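FAQ: What does the model actually see?

It sees only this:
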Amino acid sequence: MKVLITLGPTQEPIDRVRYITNSSSGKMGLALAIESLGRGHETTVICGPIHLSIPGGIKVYRIRTASEMIDLALKELDNYDVFICAAAIADYTPAAFQDSKIKSGGKLTLKLKQTPKLTRLAKQKLPDTFVVGFKAEYNISEDELVEIAYSKLKKENLNLVVANDIQRNEFGSDTSEVWVVDPDKKVVHIPKDSKEKIAKEIWEIIKLSIENYRG
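And it is asked to produce this:
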């Protein structure tokens, strides 16, 4: 089976020296990629700027911006069975890029535009690909988190959504706690553990879901 995984943050340039980003470390996505490789899957990752060592045996593409990640993933996806979008792709990017350094001093108004949802585009382009989305929220109840994840799954026609609350486990931590939601609104809660163990549990759910999905 061929598996494509996105991981890490993106950087959205404002000018030649400044950019918008987030604190995603890429650790969860990398744990999923290592588990995928260990299960014998042909594994490729598309990663934003990260400071992690990616093991040999995993094919790696490195990008910087949301548009680069989206364009490359959609191009690459033609040949894959499973797509796991674990990257924290920027929701917004500057509406205009200044091809110099903005001078310091005074007020600066920054206009932003929304970036496309990669999982939605992937499922639209390749409806038979098994697509797993991720949804991160901050300091909300478990019920709210599940509802938001399920709404994303239905709107984008995804196969699974993995949700987490980054107030409980910050970006960059070595642990996580997730809720995995399927199209029937069945929820599997994976309690707080190392990201390596969380990845194993997520892959077990993916494996069973694929068996049901493909009959």
